[in-house]
Design brief:
The structure holds 2 protein chains of 2 kinds.
Chain A (H helix, E strand, L loop, with lengths): L7 E12 L2 E12 L3 E5 L6 H8 L7 E6 L2 E2 L5 H6 L2 E3 L12 H10 L1 H9 L14 H8 L14 H13 L5 E5 L7 H18 L2 E5 L3 H7 L2 E6 L2 E6 L1 H4 L3 H7 L23
Parallel strand pairs in A: 3-8, 3-9, 6-7, 7-8
Antiparallel strand pairs in A: 1-2, 1-4, 4-5, 9-10
Helix pairs in contact in A: 3-5, 3-6, 5-6
Chain B lengths: L2 H25 L2 H27 L6 H19 L1 H23 L4 H27 L4 E2 L6 H23 L2 H18 L4 H27 L1 E2 L1 H4 L2 H14 L6 H19 L1 H18 L9 H22 L2 H14 L1
Helix pairs in contact in B: 1-6, 2-6, 2-7, 2-8, 2-10, 2-11, 3-4, 3-5, 3-8, 3-10, 4-8, 6-8, 7-8, 10-11, 11-12
The chains are: A alpha/beta, B mainly alpha.
């Protein structure tokens, strides 16, 4: 786990989201530190996306608090979260289909991404990473330079996925929340996506929180994993410890982890503690 | 064309149209000036409607409320304040009402927003009627001192030009981009840092200010106003129809449609008032079905596309009617059996 000295960029304190009688997220507390690469997994309906919506301001939590870099943002609109350096992607890419790929990136640069520059003079915020300096830089980073002039509605779905990440980066974030970015991609595209995510963390020093339904690919790349089950957090720790957790195994029995997918972590046996 | 060339083109077109508008009172007859006045009124109203409602897709039916508020402000204050100040006041009062109204209803979308804005228009109309009856003790107001015909015309022309100019300018600013983003995907725009609440309020107030100013300028044309005339929901509906038929998302669409409409209205209304309303409805249906981008999206290619479509359809029908299609089907079935 990260050492205690690195600052906490996003903290959730007993976040609960209720839809009528249904408790989608049940009192989840966690903190994301600078430079972490965290995965969130859980079976279908575990509340992963709802939790994401709560920590990005899209859904207001029923109770609990959200702190971004120590500032309380509970109940604030999504634009405030974006302004405090929290960027997110959506599960199905939500790009502005009528604008060009480049204009999609420029949109974020003109709003949440713009604030950053102003704050440099106050010494309040860190400078903008060189790779995020302009639309061309971001497009190069996500590998869409050649599609810059195309209409965003006309590029392939996997390119839209990359554009979605580029749009999140255009807000010049410190925390990047990725919602199932590898779903529906081919084997080769998934590998490229994982490489991109690692690069974002390693080179741009971003904190990345990554939800994925396909557990295998996620566990191979993250250093810490949070497991949600029926809205509650049942495990939080390094992948190789988490896969041995009896509660996690219980939650995943009958799900893909115990059937067709073997869990591969660098030094844990494939089927963990199932034996 | 790049951005700069487009701006130059738009400015030139606006300049040219302004010139024509300016020359009308000197060249045209009384009838033409009156027609031009109606036309300019709808140019301003529907351009400003398109600026907010077109780009954000928040369908507001409150135009007549702002128009009426402007007209009443003028009726009450013209004698004390003078012409220019009255119009500015009309715009300001309408914008203020829009901010209060918007704060209450702008978080709703779609039909709810449309119905509520219409409901609020009716509320304002009845409130004004009640106030006039119980406090001032009259039904309508007579505007005794009115400016000359040319002054009214030039004011409305100026308002129309300013509105189109405003529309051009806003499209190039962050506000315009934010409005567009709200129309495309409001939540996505929010997560990219747009404070949608303020942007919507600003856009709505802008639309209302134009409608208020136009209402103030047009009220003197009637010399006698009552709530029924100036809060007429028809003004609001017609504004929406013109913007939709012309293409609410576009800069020139509302203007083109406003010209088409005033020509239609003035020529048909006298001879056959029903035909006017019918053609209005028909045009709307045709635009929604075949031209979702409005009249402004008509290009030479659109005609060609329609022509080719019709030809293909005709060819297919001809094959069917001559029995060619049936023969072909039979032939292919026989081939399969062999």
């Amino acid at each position: 786990m990260s050492d205690v000295a690195t600052p906490v960029l996003l903290e959730a304190r007993e976040v609960t989201v209720r839809f009528g009688g249904l408790v989608a997220v049940d009192s989840v507390s966690t903190a994301f530190r600078a430079g972490e690469l965290v995965g969130i997994i859980g079976p279908n309906g575990a509340g992963k996306t709802t939790f994401f919506n709560a920590i990005s301001g899209v859904t207001e939590p029923t109770s609990g608090r959200l702190l971004a870099a120590g500032r309380d943002l509970t109940g604030a609109g999504p634009h405030r979260f974006a302004g405090r350096g929290l960027a997110r992607t959506f599960q199905t890419p939500r790009v502005f289909t009528d604008l060009s790929v480049q204009a999609n990136i420029e949109f974020g640069l003109k709003f949440a991404g713009r604030r950053r520059r102003k704050w440099i003079f106050w010494g309040d915020e860190v400078g903008v990473p060189w790779a995020l300096r302009d639309a061309a830089g971001i497009l190069r980073l996500v590998g869409l330079s050649e599609q810059a002039a195309l209409r965003a509605g006309d590029v392939t779905p996997s390119q839209q996925r990359l554009l979605e990440i580029g749009m999140a980066l255009s807000t010049r974030p410190r925390v990047l929340l990725l919602d199932e970015v590898a779903a529906g991609l081919t084997e080769a595209e998934v590998v490229a996506m994982a490489r991109l995510i690692r690069r974002l963390r390693d080179e741009l020093d971003l904190t990345v929180v990554w939800i994925e339904h396909a557990v295998k690919i996620l566990l191979r790349h993250v250093e810490r994993v949070i497991v949600l089950h029926q809205g509650r957090k049942i495990a939080d720790g390094p992948p190789r410890e988490v896969v041995r957790d009896p509660q996690v195994i219980e939650a995943y029995l009958g799900d893909e982890m115990s059937e067709d997918e073997t869990v591969e972590t660098p030094d844990a046996s494939p089927t963990g503690g199932r034996a | 064309m790049n951005d700069r060339q487009l701006l130059t083109r738009d400015l030139l077109v606006l300049f040219g149209l302004t010139g024509w508008g300016l020359s009308l009172p000197y060249l045209g007859s009384e009838f033409m000036v009156s027609m031009g006045l109606t036309c300019l009124m709808y140019v301003a109203l529907s351009s400003s409607w398109g600026l907010f409602c077109g780009s954000t897709r928040y369908l507001s039916l409150a135009t007549s409320a702002f128009f009426g508020i402007g007209a009443y402000t003028c009726a009450m204050q013209l004698e004390q304040l003078g012409w220019v100040a009255t119009i500015a006041l009309g715009a300001a009062v309408a914008a203020g009402v829009a901010i209060v109204m918007g704060a209450a209803v702008l978080h709703l979308r779609g039909t709810y927003f449309a119905v509520l804005t219409f409901g609020m228009t009716e509320l304002i109309r009845h409130a004004v009627t009640y106030y006039e009856k119980s406090v001032t003790g009259t039904v309508g107001r007579v505007l005794a001192v009115v400016p000359e015909r040319d002054t009214i015309y030039l004011t409305v022309l100026l308002l129309a030009v300013l509105t189109v100019g405003l529309s051009m300018w806003v499209r190039r600013t962050r506000l315009g981009l934010a409005l567009m983003g709200i129309g495309a995907d409001e939540q996505r725009a929010q997560t990219l840092g747009v404070n949608t609440r303020w942007v919507k309020l600003a856009g709505f107030a802008m639309t209302a200010a134009v409608a208020g100013a136009v209402g103030a300028a047009m009220s003197v044309r009637w010399t006698y106003i009552d709530p029924h005339t100036v809060f007429n929901p028809f003004i609001g509906f017609q504004t929406v129809l013109i913007a939709l038929i012309g293409g609410a998302m576009t800069l020139w669409g509302p203007l083109i449609a406003a010209i088409v409409f005033s020509l239609l209205a003035e020529t048909l209304r006298l001879q056959a008032p029903q035909v006017y309303m019918m053609s209005l409805g028909l045009l709307l249906i045709l635009c929604v079905l075949y031209l979702p981008g409005g009249l402004a999206s008509l290009r030479w290619d659109t005609w060609k596309l329609w022509r080719d479509d019709t030809r293909a359809w005709w060819k297919e029908k001809k094959r069917e009617w001559t029995g060619e299609k049936a023969r072909e089907k039979k032939r292919s079935r026989e081939q399969r059996l062999v």
